[in-house]
Amino acid sequence: MAKAAAKTAAATSPSAERRPALAGRSTSATGVKVEVLAPAERMSLRAPEASLAALSKALGVTLPKQPKTSATKGGRTAMWLGPDEWLVIDEAGNDPLADCAGVSALHSAVGISHRNIGISVVGPAAAAAINSGCPQDLSLDAFPVGAASRTILGKVEIVLLRTAQDAFRVECWRSFSDYVFTFLSEGARDAAG
User: Fold this and answer.
1) Cα distance between residue 173 and residue 92, in whole Å
2) CA atoms within 13 A on the CB side of 54
3) Domain check: are 118 and 34 in the same one?
4) How do beta strands 116-122 and 148-153 pair?
5) How many domains does the structure of the chain reveal?
6) Same domain, 72 and 134
7) What is the pLDDT along the chain (193 residues), one digit of tens a residue?
8) 15: buried, middle or exposed (CB in 10 Å: 19+, 13-18, 0-12)?
9) Are residues 121 and 182 in the same domain?
10) Structural domain that includes position 106
11) b/e for 24-33, b at 16 or more Cβ within 10 A?
């Protein structure tokens, strides 16, 4: 009888639904807008120099080799994070992990799509909003369009990408996303003041 009741309860219980962290949140202040970006496919990639040509071909984007650089093609962005490390983001919904699965060259590719959240910071005061808690020099000379780096915001590690003169993408771990979003929102209000 207990088994039948358990089966009935399991059959009638609603299924769990995964909702994106911070879904739909945005804030605006004079000169800056902060909003959560749509979910994207993400991959952490580690590889030696000898593997880069094969991986770049499989991914359809040339993996950058210089510090603080990125490359974008067809909705896919690869950001240099270290001598043998990249963050690859695909906003078109294609899976970069699957694209690397057939590459025999030495590499480590780990899907991190559900670990990270992307936050957009846009407007003439975007750099000031980010600099409220990030020591990175965000002047255009030091951090031009396409620049990317792993840095900090407040007490949290982020990956920062400049997508346009007055636009940035902030990547952070889901578990810190509320902190990062709130920090950027406060920074936006301070920058507007």
Assistant:
1) 20
2) 13
3) yes
4) unpaired
5) 2
6) no
7) 555 555 555 556 577 666 667 777 888 889 999 999 999 999 999 999 999 999 999 999 999 999 999 999 999 999 999 999 999 999 998 999 999 999 999 999 999 999 999 999 999 999 999 999 999 999 999 999 999 999 999 999 999 999 999 999 999 999 999 999 999 999 999 887 7
8) exposed
9) yes
10) 40-112
11) ebeeebebbb
Q: Which residue has the tokens 């996303």?
A: 177
C-alpha dist (Å) from residue 6 to 11, 17, 138, 182: 9, 21, 58, 42
Strand partners, 168: 121, 162
Q: Could you tell me the strand order of the sheet in which 70-73 lies?
A: 70-73, 76-82, 85-90, 41-46, 108-111
Instruction: Please name the amino acid found at residue 121.
Output: V
User: 38 φ, ψ to 5°?
Assistant: -65, 155
Do 55 and 32 belong together in one domain?
no
DSSP structure class, residue 65? -
pTM for the model: 0.87
CA distances in angstroms from 186 to 35, 100, 179, 182, 191, listed in the order given:
13, 39, 11, 6, 9
Residues in the chain: 193
109 three-state secondary structure: strand
